[in-house]
Amino acid sequence: MLGSLRSIVQEVNAARDLPSVLDIIVRRVQAVMNTKVCSVYLLDKQSGNYVLMATQGLNQDAVGQVHMAPGEGLVGNVVTREEPINLEQAEAHPAFQYFPTTGEEQFSAFLGTPIIHHRNVLGVLVVQQTERRRFDEGEEAFLVTLAAQLAGVIAHAEATGALVNIGQQRNEAKFIGLAASPGVAIGRAHIVAPPANLATVPFACSMDVDAELALFQHALAAAREEIRDVGERLKDNLNKEERALFDAYISMLDDNSIAVEVCERIRQQLTAARAWAEVMLEHVRRFEAMSDSYFRDRAADVRDLGARVLMHLRQQEQSQRDYPDNTILVGEELTAAVLAEVPRERLAGIISIKGSANSHVAIIARAMGVPAVMGAQELPWEQIDGVDLVLDGYRGELHIHPSAELKRRFEDIAEEERELARNLDHLAKLPCETADGHRVRLWVNTGLMADVVRSLERGAEGVGLYRTEVPFLLRDRFPSEEEQREIYREQLQAFAPRPVTMRTLDIGGDKALSYFPIEETNPFLGWRGIRVTLDHPEIFLGQVRAMMKASLGLDNLRIMLPMISGVGELEAARRLVDRAYDELVDEGYKIQRPPLGIMIEVPSAVYQARELAARVDFMSVGSNDLTQYLLAVDRNNSRVAGIYHGFHPAVLQALLQVVTAGHETSTKVGICGELAGDPAGALLLVAMGYDVLSMNATNLPRVKAALRAVNKSDLDRLLQQVLKMESPEQIEEKLHGYLQDLGISGLVQPQPAETSLGG
């Protein structure tokens, strides 16, 4: 049944709206399982009951009329048990409830399985049979598997308006992603889709039918001409079968039936690109479903032809479209090149379906000060072109079709943020010290030259983390030693005489170079960070040499090694650093040996912190990675992001252990990660004794304001209370209460007033 399962899921994913989804499910499941009945019951959030929403086999008049509360009837029992119910004689079960309107008295065998999404039972999928028999294990497993795969699709459809296309409805809906760049954006979605991918063409309507028809005919003509030209140029190099393929393409483009299908959908006010994509994908699925292997193979040809025409449609669309004010870019995987196309004054926010808070685009967004959400995997992004949006870059939340009230609340937040920033400007020239005189260094994390001005304006005293991989990400090859030297020199000069901590190349995990692909089943536990560069000393040596050359006459460089998991890796890297230094001295460079430090990011380094600290000049905790490794949570996976918590007691104990071990060997210890940029987190870190807090420049004034408002002695007592607590939620509540008592709770990321939202 695997092939059938895959086919059903593909059809469902291509459906326009919820009724289409439900119709496909009940028809296809009934046929595949050869049952008399297949029905879907969905949760009505207002009443809390489960309603018959689609059926194949029961009376259609019952759709929308049959309601069951949790625990009521067999369907209600599936809901409360949250597991399948498989009965050979349903009417004999004590929970059986008869609804005359359904006509189900003739059916005996019953199998119902819950449709669960994020621990919530969205509905129940039911099959029924006339004869008395128990559905076998394979049938039950098929239905359970299908329900699990359909849960996300149904959740999307429900959240975005249930019975109508998202582009045409006006219901508020909320989706969760990953907070990548702080701030609030209120604007309209502008979809950026791969130019030749039929499956990612956004659902969009157009009132100008004549213009879309003309666009379609022009694209068809351009594609015909292109195919003829290519075929003519290559005819001497192609065999008979390959030449026939070009003829087949032309023949398909001349097929009037396809054009008629497309034009019919355009007249229904679909855009030409969406109409073409829908028709061609339907033809692809028909070919893929054929039993003859020759015809199945033709599906790829149909898809290729569809992509060719789509490319021409997209080129014409892009040439006619500009970017309005308050544009919120939305795409499956946005790139720096796409961002560069939008005038900065018109770019309000960024949403990427894929990617992480540490992806290249996220780093650029933070440098530009543009709010961003990454990893919004459940957002039906193809269907929201031109839709009103509110983007909350603090919590990674997206609100579609926000009400006037919701917009007002977020506009108030944006204004509060601007006012707070103005009020904190005066802190830039003041030292960061507690009210009773305890001094703390506040440094910044950087990756682009765009970060420099903002960092210095906010009073940064140094750079705790310069991501050297950014210049590597911006190229289609490894940058040369001289190219690196020039880039590093700019950073070192901009911050001189302040210290600049340059982390050696940290790729792997969620940071990939297109020209140096790393394919792994589990990349976060694989070949990344120092492991890569130790295996490629030519890359490591070239980079370290470039750093040291760039520091000539400035002497504000610090070199930091990422992902160190033990003494052996540190010693191997140190030998290479020493070798690079000796080479440069021999070549006549009058440079000082830079301090060498490591990042504490993996649990093994926590437990060897004392041994590691004795061998380095400084240590810096990478709290983001350390938290995810300690909690076994991928922080870039929105499905488990709720488990990732910087205030988890295990994380706090590890942080305390590291700084204690460092100070026992007289080694300075800093931290660079989201926790350091959180005013509440900064209070605990200072109490633990961290010497340096490094953060995004945006958060620096908030942290400084919080620390200048407290006494170190009070923080020590607060830390002792927190270390006795058993849950991150309890700790977070305690910290926010502490800030509130001090009258500085506004420094924490703003919280909009509660409002009723779907999704």
Supply the helix-strand structural class.
Answer: alpha/beta
Uncertain runs are: 161-169, 753-759
Largest sheet: 8 strands, mixed
Mean pLDDT: 85
Tell me the distance between the termini: 32 Å
Q: Proportion of β residues? A: 15-25%
Jot down its keywords:
globular; alpha/beta; cytoplasm; 759 residues
Descriptive report:
With 759 residues, this protein is an alpha/beta fold. Helices cover 45% and strands 15% of the residues. It contains 26 helices and 22 strands. Strands 7-14-13-9-10-11-12-8 form an 8-stranded mixed sheet. An 8-stranded parallel β-barrel has the order 15-16-17-18-19-20-21-22, surrounded by 6 helices. It is globular and about 85 Å long. The model is unreliable at 161-169 and 753-759 (pLDDT under 50).
Quick structural gist:
This protein is an alpha/beta fold. The protein is 45% helix and 15% strand.
Describe the secondary structure blueprint for this structure.
Layout: H1 2-14, H2 18-33, E1 37-43, E2 50-56, E3 67-68, H3 73-81, E4 85-87, E5 109-117, E6 120-129, H4 137-159, E7 173-176, E8 178-181, E9 184-192, H5 209-234, H6 240-253, H7 256-267, H8 272-288, H9 293-320, E10 327-331, H10 336-341, E11 347-352, H11 360-368, E12 372-374, E13 388-392, E14 397-400, H12 404-424, E15 441-446, H13 450-457, E16 463-467, H14 469-473, H15 481-495, E17 500-503, H16 530-535, H17 537-550, E18 557-561, H18 567-586, E19 596-600, H19 603-607, H20 609-613, E20 618-621, H21 623-631, H22 649-664, E21 668-672, H23 679-688, E22 692-695, H24 700-708, H25 712-722, H26 728-742
Parallel strand pairs: 9-10, 10-11, 11-12, 15-16, 15-22, 16-17, 17-18, 18-19, 19-20, 20-21, 21-22
Antiparallel strand pairs: 1-2, 1-6, 2-3, 4-5, 5-6, 7-14, 8-12, 9-13, 13-14
